[in-house]
């Protein structure tokens, strides 16, 4: 009896075993045999890659950092009274994709394949979900391109809700591509490329923007790529409810991919990232906005650009990123999406 109590206590708190996101079970989703017997509806996938950055490197340690920050995520949410990690959906942690740090072209192919394989498995609860959805832990922001290629394959074009301080729709001619084609795919151009590849809808939206653009024409190009803009300071002018309703109106009934670059937060709340921009949202503001998106058909999501080497002793950034990850999972659990 006593050992049972000890065991059951340990199984709801995070300080045991190897570190997975929220102490979810680890499944080797890359193994056909294992995935056939351990089915899932939602998968956590780490993308430890940071060789396409324009600022400080280090986001390859992001997935590990976010898992460390997630150790105490457990139980019923104070606001929704729901335990998203243990609801109808079987959620597992697939660990990290194997990605080379020596050749980005090869790494993107590896990550494309990881997304394709993991989203191609049968679901656990096939009365509710036909295709497994993925929450990716980055990695620099270019990893989102592979995720969008995968959601396009499974669900068609998606509206992207892009939380970031930067636009990330730069034309490769403006950012990197004047050096080589290889250099043109980076963490500031992946949304431009996603548009060129026809992966995203023209009902996409940025939220939290504030970083300077390189050229005035970047704005027109951003619009051409399918985006409108909510700036960081719009929160002071219009408030949180306006931000939530503006995002919802923009994406309408379409399927949605939510990408959260942790640098959308003010550096005071998330110092552990590569391209910090002062004047961002607080962690509480961001969580309230994401939680306000309940009801949208979220078919994929990520938290990226977490760079634990620049975090502080209190682990502010990885704690925030883990909480954001839980909010994103909660959106997926709240709204099952059939094929
Ligand atoms: C699937 O989800 C439905 C809806 O929440 C639930 O009633 C059912 O028990 C689940 N089935 C399995 C096998 O988990
Ligand atoms: C998106 O493109 C379609 C045509 O493909 C067009 O009818 C529609 O007005 C566009 N919507 C927006 C919000 O730009
Ligand atoms: Mn970004």
UniProtKB/TrEMBL annotation:
Cofactor binding, per record: Binds 2 manganese ions per subunit.
GO molecular function, one term: agmatinase activity
Superkingdom in the source lineage: Eukaryota
Entry keyword set: Hydrolase, Manganese, Metal-binding, Polyamine biosynthesis, Signal, Spermidine biosynthesis
PROSITE patterns tied to this protein: ARGINASE_1, ARGINASE_2
Signal peptide: 1-20
Entry keyword Manganese: yes
Coiled coil: none
UniProt keyword annotation of Hydrolase present: yes
GO terms of biological process kind: putrescine biosynthetic process from arginine, via agmatine; spermidine biosynthetic process
Binding site for Mn(2+): 141, 164, 166, 168, 261, 263
Pfam family, one: Arginase
Swiss-Prot/TrEMBL cofactor(s): Mn(2+)
CDD domains: Agmatinase_PAH
Family: Belongs to the arginase family.
Name of this chain's protein: Ureohydrolase
Organism: Pseudoneurospora amorphoporcata
Organism ancestry: Eukaryota, Fungi, Dikarya, Ascomycota, Pezizomycotina
């Amino acid at each position: 009896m006593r050992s049972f109590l000890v065991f059951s206590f340990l199984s709801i708190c995070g300080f045991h075993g190897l570190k997975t996101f929220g102490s979810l079970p680890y499944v080797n989703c890359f193994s056909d045999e294992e995935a056939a017997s351990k089915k899932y509806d939602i998968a956590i996938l780490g993308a430890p890659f940071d060789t396409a950055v324009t600022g400080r490197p280090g986001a390859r340690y992001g997935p590990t950092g976010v898992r460390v920050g997630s150790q105490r995520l457990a139980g019923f949410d104070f606001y929704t009274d729901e335990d998203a990690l243990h609801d109808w959906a079987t959620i597992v942690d697939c660990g990290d994709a194997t990605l080379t740090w020596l050749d980005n072209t090869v790494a993107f192919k590896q990550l494309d394949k990881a997304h394709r394989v993991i989203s191609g498995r049968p679901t656990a609860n096939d009365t509710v979900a036909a295709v497994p959805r993925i929450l990716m832990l980055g990695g620099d922001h270019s990893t989102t391109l592979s995720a969008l290629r995968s959601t396009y394959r499974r669900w068609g074009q998606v509206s992207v809700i892009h939380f970031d301080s930067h636009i990330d729709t730069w034309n490769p001619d403006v950012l990197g591509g004047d050096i080589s084609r290889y250099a043109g795919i980076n963490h500031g151009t992946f949304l431009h490329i996603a548009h060129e590849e026809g992966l995203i809808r023209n009902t996409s939206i940025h939220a939290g923007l504030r970083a300077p653009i390189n050229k005035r024409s970047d704005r027109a190009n951003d619009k051409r790529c399918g985006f409108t803009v909510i700036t960081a300071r719009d929160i002071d002018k219009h408030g949180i409810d306006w931000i939530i309703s503006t995002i919802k109106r923009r994406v309408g009934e379409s399927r949605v991919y939510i990408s959260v670059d942790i640098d959308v937060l003010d550096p005071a709340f998330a110092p552990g990232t590569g391209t910090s921009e002062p004047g961002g949202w607080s962690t509480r503001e961001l969580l309230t906005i994401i939680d306000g998106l309940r009801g949208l058909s979220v078919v994929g999501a990520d938290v990226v650009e977490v760079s634990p080497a620049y975090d502080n002793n209190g682990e502010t950034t990885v704690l925030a990123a883990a909480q954001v990850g839980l909010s994103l999972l909660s959106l997926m659990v709240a709204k099952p999406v059939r094929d």
